[in-house]
Design brief:
This protein is mainly alpha-helical. 55% of the residues lie in helices and 0% in strands. It is built from 7 helices and no strands. The relative contact order is 0.12.
Protein backbone atom coordinates (compact mmCIF):
# COMPACT_ATOMS: atom_id res chain seq x y z
CA UNK A 1 0.00 0.00 0.00
CA UNK A 2 2.95 2.29 0.53
CA UNK A 3 3.38 3.03 -3.17
CA UNK A 4 -0.30 3.98 -3.43
CA UNK A 5 -0.20 6.36 -0.43
CA UNK A 6 1.76 8.89 -2.46
CA UNK A 7 -0.92 9.13 -5.15
CA UNK A 8 -3.75 11.61 -4.91
CA UNK A 9 -6.57 9.06 -5.08
CA UNK A 10 -10.20 9.75 -4.29
CA UNK A 11 -11.89 7.93 -1.42
CA UNK A 12 -13.45 5.51 -3.90
CA UNK A 13 -10.08 5.05 -5.57
CA UNK A 14 -8.50 4.08 -2.24
CA UNK A 15 -11.33 1.62 -1.57
CA UNK A 16 -10.74 0.06 -5.00
CA UNK A 17 -7.02 -0.27 -4.24
CA UNK A 18 -7.85 -1.99 -0.94
CA UNK A 19 -10.25 -4.40 -2.63
CA UNK A 20 -7.88 -5.16 -5.49
CA UNK A 21 -4.43 -5.26 -3.97
CA UNK A 22 -4.71 -5.46 -0.16
CA UNK A 23 -7.46 -8.06 0.06
CA UNK A 24 -5.73 -10.31 -2.44
CA UNK A 25 -2.77 -10.61 -0.06
CA UNK A 26 -5.00 -12.22 2.59
CA UNK A 27 -7.17 -14.56 0.53
CA UNK A 28 -5.01 -17.71 0.58
CA UNK A 29 -3.79 -17.46 4.20
CA UNK A 30 -7.28 -16.62 5.49
CA UNK A 31 -8.77 -19.52 3.53
CA UNK A 32 -6.34 -22.06 4.93
CA UNK A 33 -5.72 -20.76 8.45
CA UNK A 34 -7.76 -19.49 11.35
CA UNK A 35 -7.12 -15.77 11.67
CA UNK A 36 -7.14 -14.69 15.33
CA UNK A 37 -9.41 -11.75 16.23
CA UNK A 38 -6.43 -9.57 17.23
CA UNK A 39 -4.89 -10.08 13.77
CA UNK A 40 -8.20 -9.18 12.11
CA UNK A 41 -8.25 -5.94 14.12
CA UNK A 42 -4.66 -5.25 13.12
CA UNK A 43 -5.47 -5.81 9.42
CA UNK A 44 -8.57 -3.60 9.69
CA UNK A 45 -6.50 -0.89 11.34
CA UNK A 46 -3.97 -0.90 8.50
CA UNK A 47 -6.71 -0.83 5.84
CA UNK A 48 -8.68 1.98 7.44
CA UNK A 49 -5.55 4.01 8.15
CA UNK A 50 -4.84 3.85 4.40
CA UNK A 51 -8.45 4.65 3.52
CA UNK A 52 -8.70 7.76 5.70
CA UNK A 53 -5.00 8.72 5.58
CA UNK A 54 -4.98 8.62 9.35
CA UNK A 55 -7.75 8.35 11.93
CA UNK A 56 -11.22 7.10 10.98
CA UNK A 57 -13.57 9.87 9.90
CA UNK A 58 -16.76 7.77 9.67
CA UNK A 59 -17.86 4.70 11.63
CA UNK A 60 -16.66 1.53 10.00
CA UNK A 61 -20.12 -0.02 10.10
CA UNK A 62 -21.38 2.84 7.94
CA UNK A 63 -18.47 2.70 5.50
CA UNK A 64 -19.11 -1.02 4.88
CA UNK A 65 -22.71 -0.38 3.79
CA UNK A 66 -23.70 -0.47 0.13
CA UNK A 67 -23.78 2.85 -1.74
CA UNK A 68 -27.57 2.79 -2.00
CA UNK A 69 -27.74 2.59 1.82
CA UNK A 70 -25.43 5.55 2.37
CA UNK A 71 -22.16 3.63 2.67
CA UNK A 72 -19.00 3.48 0.61
CA UNK A 73 -19.16 -0.23 -0.26
CA UNK A 74 -15.96 -0.91 1.70
CA UNK A 75 -14.89 -4.49 2.36
CA UNK A 76 -15.78 -6.12 5.68
CA UNK A 77 -12.68 -8.16 6.47
CA UNK A 78 -14.24 -10.15 9.32
CA UNK A 79 -17.19 -11.23 7.15
CA UNK A 80 -14.94 -12.11 4.24
CA UNK A 81 -12.69 -14.25 6.43
CA UNK A 82 -15.76 -16.05 7.86
CA UNK A 83 -17.08 -16.66 4.34
CA UNK A 84 -13.79 -18.34 3.44
CA UNK A 85 -14.38 -20.79 6.28
CA UNK A 86 -18.01 -21.33 5.26
CA UNK A 87 -16.84 -22.30 1.79
CA UNK A 88 -15.28 -25.41 3.36
CA UNK A 89 -18.66 -26.68 4.60
CA UNK A 90 -19.84 -28.07 1.26
CA UNK A 91 -16.67 -30.07 0.47
CA UNK A 92 -16.63 -31.39 4.05
CA UNK A 93 -20.25 -32.49 3.80
CA UNK A 94 -19.66 -34.26 0.51
CA UNK A 95 -16.50 -35.91 1.79
CA UNK A 96 -18.25 -37.20 4.91
CA UNK A 97 -21.03 -38.84 2.94
CA UNK A 98 -23.81 -36.34 3.52
CA UNK A 99 -24.24 -35.96 -0.25
CA UNK A 100 -25.39 -32.36 0.10
CA UNK A 101 -24.85 -29.61 2.63
CA UNK A 102 -28.62 -29.66 3.12
CA UNK A 103 -28.46 -33.28 4.32
CA UNK A 104 -26.13 -32.63 7.26
CA UNK A 105 -28.99 -33.37 9.66
CA UNK A 106 -30.59 -36.69 8.92
CA UNK A 107 -34.34 -37.30 9.00
CA UNK A 108 -33.87 -39.43 12.14
CA UNK A 109 -32.43 -36.46 13.99
CA UNK A 110 -35.40 -34.21 13.25
Amino acid sequence: LESWRKRDLSLFGRIQILKTFALSQFVVPATLLVVPPDKIKQIESILYKFLWRGKDKVKRTKVIRKLKHGGLNMIDIKSIFMSFKAAWITPSCLKNGFGSPHNVVSDDQL
